[in-house]
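Continuing the series of single-chain predictions for the mutant panel. This is the parent chain; the variants come on the following pages.
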Amino acid sequence: MARPSNRDERRAQIVDGMLRVLPETGYERATIQRIAEAAGLGAGLVHHHFASKLEILLALGERLAELVSGRQREARTPRARVDAWIDAHLAQGDDASAEAVACWVALGAEALVHAEVRALHRTLLERRRADLDARLREVCRDEARSTRGLDVLVANVLATVEGYFQIATTAPDVIPRGSAAGATRAMTHRLLDAMPARESSSTEPDVAPSEAAPPPSSRSSKHEPKPETPRRSRGRKGTS
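Parent structure:
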């Protein structure tokens, strides 16, 4: 009887090795040998499962995104899912991963100097923004709140998380230990509470303000007559 393949298990070990090495060394010095040692495997086995270091980093990006999604699935209410999104990024709770937070920080730092890491970081950032947008819209629907201007709220929360990441990299003592997630949750809930009630659950579009109505120049009214175009006199050429 054939033995089951351990490919997925080995790949997960290697990604875990990158998860441990990246925050300590950065992407440039995260060699295959160091990743292999952290994973408890030989370098040859790492090369067998991944074609390059960048491929391992891409897999790590998927792992980080899955950690965020996994915590949200356990939350039972829309607001709890928003809290889970924040906690997963800023390392709060019994199942929080400080290594994952350190990897978000390392990815952001390396994105400044490596084009391939920058592309990965942008992709992950766009996915995280879309995920947060979906969670906040869910709260608005559940509480019959308007979603006009929600894009600003999303940008505010995402920028706050990214700001904490940057400070954690350069000056961690500036932030009181363990305060980031709680402060971000409190800010987010206050902003949600300030969202106005939905005018009509059946007619108000669930889109950003820029998409909700055409610009004034494209609007027309049935009750406003069009101004007449003044007729030009048909005099001889050259006369006034």
